[in-house]
Amino acid sequence: PEFFVAPLGDRAEAAAFGLAHRLRAAGARVEIDAGSKSLKSQMRRAGKLEAPYVIIVGEDEVAEGSITVRDMRARGLEQAERIPVDELATIYERLIAAPMIEAYTR
């Protein structure tokens, strides 16, 4: 998958499924972890699946209308970014679609 969606809490799980649906509709390969698993457990699973990006949807993110996107390939402080959920299509374009198009046009 290109994205692994990690919901944290009941309200967040409903929002996470909607988010996964929107990403899939845009053409992204998405895996979502349903159930009440810890973030650590979900991050471990994302690592095993070799997902380059994890989208964390917690109760705070739902309340703010945001998501946290973590780059699993990055090391250091710049690995996570909180963004408004409305910018999801822009994030998909920036992280996945544009680099793929660039690679094919070289």
Please characterize this protein's 3D structure.
- This protein has 4 helices and 5 strands; from the N terminus they run βαβαβαββα.
- With 106 residues, the chain is α/β, with parallel strands linked by helices.
- The chain has helices spanning 10-25, 39-48, 59-64, 88-105, and strands at 3-8, 30-32, 53-58, 66-71, 80-84.
- The protein is 47% helix and 25% strand.
- The chain is globular.
- It has a 5-stranded mixed beta sheet, with helices on both faces.
- β1 (3-8), α1 and β2 form a beta-alpha-beta unit.
Helix-strand layout with pairing:
Elements: E1 3-8, H1 10-25, E2 30-32, H2 39-48, E3 53-58, H3 59-64, E4 66-71, E5 80-84, H4 88-105
Parallel strand pairs: 1-2, 1-3
Antiparallel strand pairs: 3-4, 4-5
Give a short synopsis of this structure.
This protein is an alpha/beta fold and 106 residues long. The protein contains four helices and five strands, in the order βαβαβαββα. The longest helix has 18 residues, at 88-105.
Give the total of beta strands.
Answer: 5
- Which percent range describes the beta-strand content? 15-25%
Q: Which regions are unreliable across 5 or more consecutive residues at pLDDT < 50?
A: none
Report the mean per-residue pLDDT as an integer: 84
By DSSP (H or I, 4+ residues per run), the number of helices equals 4
Helical residues, percent: 40-55%
Cα end-to-end separation: 24 Å
Largest sheet, in brief, is: 5 strands, mixed
Strand order of the largest sheet: 2-1-3-4-5
Order of helices and strands: EHEHEHEEH
Computed Rg: 13 Å
Overall spatial form: globular
Structural class: alpha/beta
